[in-house]
Protein: PTS glucose transporter subunit IIA
Amino acid sequence: MFKKLFKQSKVEKIYAPVNGEVVKLEEVPDPVFSQKMMGEGIAINPSKEEIVSPVNGKVVQIPDSRHAIGLKTDNGTEVLIHVGLETVALGGKGFTLNVSEGDKVRVGQPLLNVDLSYISENASSVITPVVITNSNDIDKKITLSEEKEAKAGETVLVTIN
Structure:
């Protein structure tokens, strides 16, 4: 009984999945993301080709096109990393997976390698939204980082408490 009474709410942090410039979701040149149709979040204009896990949790979805990875944290937060814009049309070219659906992952663990040159030549953008797809269902405060540059696995992009 006392545990529940004095239990402090857990603060959850979502770290950068890739090195690069942090961009507000509203500035992503795609209305699905900029209008937050998929949920609250932030984006990165990547400078490195390795995408790492921004959370501790489980890989719950990888489309055949390998352009995105859906994760679910140990606390139930659903996080989507969507590499580039209009990248589903690439049919998986330019993406090399390091994980499979069902894998448990830790912050900083490599998930995916991307060929940024190929993506920038064949898709509309390399900008990478990081979205909390169940943000409308979370009864917690979501705070977005004011950082301008992100370091994969180290820079906190989103705090939930």
